[in-house]
Known about the structure:
By secondary structure, chain A is an alpha+beta fold. In chain B, the strands form three sheets. In chain B, strands 7-8-9-10-11-18-19 form a seven-stranded mixed sheet, covered by helices on one side. Chain B is globular and about 65 Å long.
Amino acid sequence: MKAFGTLIATLDTTNKTTxxxxxxxxxxxxxxxxxxxxxxxxxxxxxxxxxxxxxxxRQWAMEITGIPExxxxxxxxxxxxxxxxxxxxxxxxxxxxxxSLSEWMELIAGLSNKTEEEKKDFVIHAWQHLPHAxxxxxxxxxxxxxxAGISAQSLINALDxxxxxxxxxxxxxxxxxxxxxxxxxxxLIKGGYTDVQSSRPYPFCLAYPLDRxxxxxxxxxxxxxEYKWDGIRGQVIKRNGQVYIWSRGEExxxxxFPEIRDALLQWxxxxxxxxxxxxxxxxxxxxxxxxxxxxxxxxPGKKIIQEIPVMLYAYDVLEWEGEDCRHRGLAERRALxxxxxxxxxxxxxxxxxxxxxxxxxTLANMQQQARDVNSEGLMLKHKASPYHTGRKRGDWWKWxxxxxxxxxxxxxxxxxxxRRSGHYTxxxxxxxxxxxxxxxxxxxxxxxDQEIKEVSSFVNKNAVEKFGPVRTVRPELVFEIAFEGxxxxxxxxxxxxxxxxxxxxxxxxKTVRDIDDIEEIKKMIR
Amino acid sequence: MLQxxxxxxxxxxxxxxxxxxxxxxxxxxxxxxxxxxxxxMQKYLCHxxxxxxxxxxxxxxxxxxxxxxxxxxxxxxxxISMHPAGHIIGSAQVRLExxxxxxxxxxxxxxxxxxxxxxxxxxxxxxxxxxxxxxxxIYKWQTVxxxxxxxxxxxxxxxxxxxxxxxxxxxLGKAQRIMKALEDIAPLYVHTAIGRINQxxxxxxxxxxxxxxxxxxxxxxxxxxxxxxVPPALLDTKMIRKIPRKADAICSGWMQVRxxxxxxxxxxxxxxxxxxxxxxxxxxxxxxxxxxxxxxHGQTAVFAxxxxxxxxxxxxxxxxxxxEEEQNGKPAEQ
Lengths: 526, 334
């Protein structure tokens, strides 16, 4: 596992993409076939089942070290990662076991039918025979989750460079369903297994935020404009009489949207469409907070389906009758999509309208009023653009309306995890409700490292409570919070929920007297 | 014997302060780091080897008296002596004896012998004032040999790849330690701030590994495959940015934790510290035999609670030590 340990250490420490790619390249050249497969599986979220609970790992570590529970918790707070905390507090190993990544993975998988005593013996023996860097990885593998400092996209780029294969082929096959024991590494990355699964989605094509004036894009007649809907990005697949709905998180969500699934089953032909899943009633897209009530219900009941109906606004077609049409130009794909819709029109799956507009000027007006139809702005897509894999600059732009903002005061702070474990980076903000303060949002990002250090220092000096991860602080620091949407919610004390709240800037010029009042904020809801 | 005042730790019978943070008549100084040795004191008393450091950092005209380790001095009936703290060159624990009662103020200390500072000496006492910068069981240092070996390997790997190794470390203490670790491995260049401290030490006869000071005349060719040592705050300066092929690393105890390594955006992090680790702190506190312990900075609440639960009476004292570390989000470990 040494080579894998070196790889993880490099990925974790440096923030230079070139160094990360070099490290992956070195690993791919040196590692054995099965280790490479495990590497891919772990990095694309195909984690093995957890066979030992984290509670047990924690308990055993405390037993061995004699560290009381409160001290373990304090250590965990400082580290931000359980597997790493355990590895750090354990005594030095007595000897070294040289095993490959796949050998460890197989041993760990084999724990499923073992007794607790047997599991304990195995884990403690491993702890005594691995140096810290590998012991930490072992714990992470045991925990059943794996995260390291590299995105799936960068990993795919690395594979693509190392093997000189087309990125979309790699992405497509690596993201699909495959099992370690059924594939060979080379066949897998070259796409040898891509056709076995009829449910497999394509990687989504992603847009960049518009970084110039729209007019700078050139002739408006070369561009297709649509609303940018604020729902769940979804890819719907109909192949061989079966329908699958994938969300952008590569999660299969078919069961959550039965009305869309049933409608698509009635459509003719096999196809893959890209679109937005939205709550929709009385010819109107509903607020995102309504859609949220529908999400994560395995089998939504009749009542909720009636109360909050969902629909798909389709805007692209990726596959038609078994043919991958992503390489065709958008205009051609749109024509195909429209034809498909004409033949199958139904209320549950509709076409996201194309906004016909003679000039950038009029389009800019529409963009500013996009919120009136509960959209976040516009999408601008070049009519000749193929359906790219992932994010590619230049062909697809998102042109969002300016976010809404409020001024709120920091009242709770918590240390971050991972990279940010040493600092207070997770903040809870409050606004006024008469003379009192009421929490409105949590936000994690938007400050520079320097500002985070300053806020952390403020928290250190103004914390009310000393133990445990959350600090209540004196309400003094005011921040401008931006968000993309706002809706009523009874989950939050304030009665409202903000969509994508983040810190725009620290308002050092303002005091707690200047923050917004909840009643005024509620008036923003449409 | 002691009183904890808004100006600093005060010795009541001796009528002097130890590492005060506001101006006083007589300040006994444990070591030259900025949070322990501040400007504005009428008179300073410290170890011989700290004298040139104070003059360089605070001013050449200060009134300062130097003592050797274990050389006693009587002030208002209090017997003062300095004992090696092993933190940096010249760092001292201050031992105070008055009417048979012994109190030790240890400043910052480490138990490991770094090969440069006089090794830590355990001093038995009734009352012990301790730091707790790394007062959590996750902090456990490797042997000095192993630490040096890892750093040397990294530098060698950079040399093989035709890169300059840029290493950040506090200019007083850590920088000299890095120099020592990399002596004879590669040509050493240091930032002027470190150069000044080196000169201060050399002026009183300390022998340091050979080095050159980095300035505008240093060419890229000279830096090729060399080591450049800079203070943490200066890692991201023009002079460093223009080095064509480089890899950077941070040497600090905080680098023990992945999150801290990632936070710093460096290519590598080495947990090399001039403070005691968890076990080091515990061993020292227990072996002093102290009945009363005061914890001044770092993981104060945690360390004091653990000591109390282990049967050693301990209290947290508010001081201005270690403040710089907190404000800078822990990069400038001193």
